[in-house]
Amino acid sequence: MNLLGLSGSPSRNAASRTLSAVKQAVEYAHAQDSVINSETINVRDLEIELCDGRDPALYEGDTKTLIDKILAADALILGTPVYRGSYTGILKNVFDVIPNDALVGKPVGIVVTGSTQHHYLVIEHEIKPLLGFFHAHSLPGGVYLTPEHYNDSVLVDEGALERLQQLATAIVQFAKHVPNDRNLLAGASGPEIPWESRLKGANKL
Ligand SMILES: Cc1cc2nc3c(=O)[nH]c(=O)nc-3n(C[C@H](O)[C@H](O)[C@H](O)COP(=O)(O)O)c2cc1C
Q1: DSSP H or E run through 39
Q2: What does the DSSP 8-state code read for residue 34?
Q3: Contacts of 126 (CB under 8 A, 6+ apart)
Q4: Which residues pair with 112 in a beta bridge?
Q5: Which of 151, 149, 60 has its CA nearest to residue 113?
Q6: Which of 42, 54, 72, 79 could bond to 22 as cystine, CB 3.0-4.6 Å?
Q7: CB 3 within 8 A of CB 77
Q8: Domain ranges of the chain
């Protein structure tokens, strides 16, 4: 099983709270089952091209590397800071460059950091609908963290650590129970939208 942690904070500060929490959740998952291949990617460390509408298969360099790792993942732990009541721009770009079927049937655990408790519903109102488009299985709930849970960027709050542990347990158990053919549990397909027709549509605008 390949578990991919993906942290979408664009912060140049090495002490990203989001990255720290995603790493912690991935570590918890790995501790449960050492046969899990796990990796955490900090999106801002890569040079990801801005989505320009091309076929995702035509991206190169870091963009291709990231797309390939997402395609190879069996399960993901996705982290983002709240920016203006939603996920960050660099994460939006990742979701724009990946193929439509990149996440079909894959379980995704969600970790969000914000400066205020008021934005915890970002998990339900912003991130889950996006994952719904991709036919991923968003784990119920999610972990929402604020600065009070940290000492600098080190997550110290016991309740927060326990919630990350619960998320890690759920993602490992869920991934183990997804059939090899993920399409079996992915629900009805959306309409086929060929790349060619999208580009024609874009030119008309
Ligand atoms: C441009 C910008 C917009 C933000 N918008 C929100 C917001 O709407 N709600 C919130 O709770 N925090 C907001 N924040 C605070 C960040 O979500 C918070 O500091 C987060 O923990 C930073 O994560 P990081 O350390 O991984 O970069 C914003 C921060 C920035 C830079």
Answers
A1: strand 37-42
A2: T
A3: 85, 86, 87
A4: 80, 144
A5: 149
A6: 79
A7: yes
A8: 2-204
Burial class of residue 3, CB neighbours in 10 A (0-12, 13-18, 19+): buried
* Residue 83 Cα to ligand 1 middle (Å): 5
Q: Which class does domain 2-204 fall in?
A: alpha beta
Choose among 154, 3, 16: nearest CA to 83: 16
pLDDT band, residue 184 (cuts 50/70/90): confident
Cα end-to-end distance, the chain, whole Å:
43
Contact 94, 48 (CB under 8 A): yes
Q: H/E/C letters for each residue in 54-122?
A: CCHHHCCHHHHHHHHHHHHCCEEEEEEECECCECCHHHHHHHHHCCCCCCCCCEEEEEEECCCHHHCCH
Pocket of ligand 1 (CB under 6 A): 9, 11, 16-19, 81-85, 113-116, 119
pLDDT-based confidence at 202, cuts 50/70/90?
Answer: low
The rounded Å distance from CA 20 to ligand 1 centre is 15
- At 54-65, the pLDDT tens digits run 999 999 999 999
C-alpha distances out from residue 113 to 7, 109, 200, Å: 11, 14, 39
Q: In ligand 1, which atom is closest to the CA atom of 119?
A: 11
Residue 81: how many other CB atoms lie within 10 Å: 23
The amino acid sitting at 30 is H
